Amino acid sequence: MSGAGSYVCGEETALLNSIEGKRAEPRLKPPFPTVKGAFGKPTVVNNVETFANVPVIVKEGAQWFSSIGSEKYPGTKIFSISGDIQKPGCYEMATDVTLADIVLDLAGGCPEGHTIKAVQLGGSSCGYIKGDELNLSVAFDSLRAEGKSLGSGAVLVLNETRNMVDQIQQIIHFFAHESCGKCTPCREGLAQACILIDRIAEGKGCETDLNMLVTLSDVMANDCFCPLGQGALTAFRSAYELFPEDFKERMVK
Ligand code: SF4
Fold first, then answer.
1. Ligand 1 atom, smallest distance to 229 CA
2. CA of 215 relative to ligand 1 center, distance in Å
3. Predicted confidence (pLDDT) at residue 89 exceeds the cutoff of 80
4. What domains appear along the chain, each with residue ranges and CATH number?
5. Could you tell me which residues come within 8 angstroms of residue 207 by beta carbon, excluding any fewer than 6 positions away?
6. What is the 13 CA–ligand 1 centroid distance (Å)?
7. Are 94 and 140 in contact (CB under 8 A)?
8. What percent of the chain has pLDDT over 70?
9. What pLDDT is attached to residue 152?
10. Residues in the ligand 1 pocket, defined by CB under 6 Å
């Protein structure tokens, strides 16, 4: 039996539904999968990266593993670096490195002649960090203290030629396509968000459109059923906060 492999399957109960041959829609929790998971049986759902750590911890011991990386969240993390970067790829690093260690030292920074405008850390449902703020530790607790998240470990680098409106337009359309449609705030909210961001991207938007997107992002963050909808406009909020000039420049003249 195989599912469609949609983005929402990153939510564990949607994945379990898909495995059972049902629509990939998140389930109401509780019961949690460890109590009632695949086919009604207790099920542990973790990502491959987590499971891959188990054999080496069993072989080398917990003390050895705890000596790597940050004190509170020891071990390593795989970062997949893409975008305007010299050496894109997947890099495994200890959890106490900084974003600069990963983006500049390992991946070589932007190609010559360009500078880093922003880095999106954690994937499309996460916010941005400005290019001159890369001295941030990637340890989970340090990022959380800054209101950031490591998410999936995706690191997208954007150079100074990128306009954030175009990035956000892509992200909103992606989530609208991936929404499973189960709950109204996500299904209808993303349809409206597409209309608003398209108008802004075409240079036909106004201040009211931006304010409506902000309101929509608050409603969706609070009222969507699962993390897909809750995080779908997080990148917009972050981009608007850090680079308001990109949005203002597209307003109807
Ligand atoms: S938030 Fe979106 S993806 Fe999640 S259950 Fe609601 S409609 Fe489906």
1. 1
2. 18
3. yes
4. 7-40 (no CATH), 76-159 (3.10.20.600), 164-248 (1.20.1440.230)
5. 251
6. 12
7. no
8. 98
9. 84
10. 8, 25-26, 179-183, 186-187, 224-226, 228-229
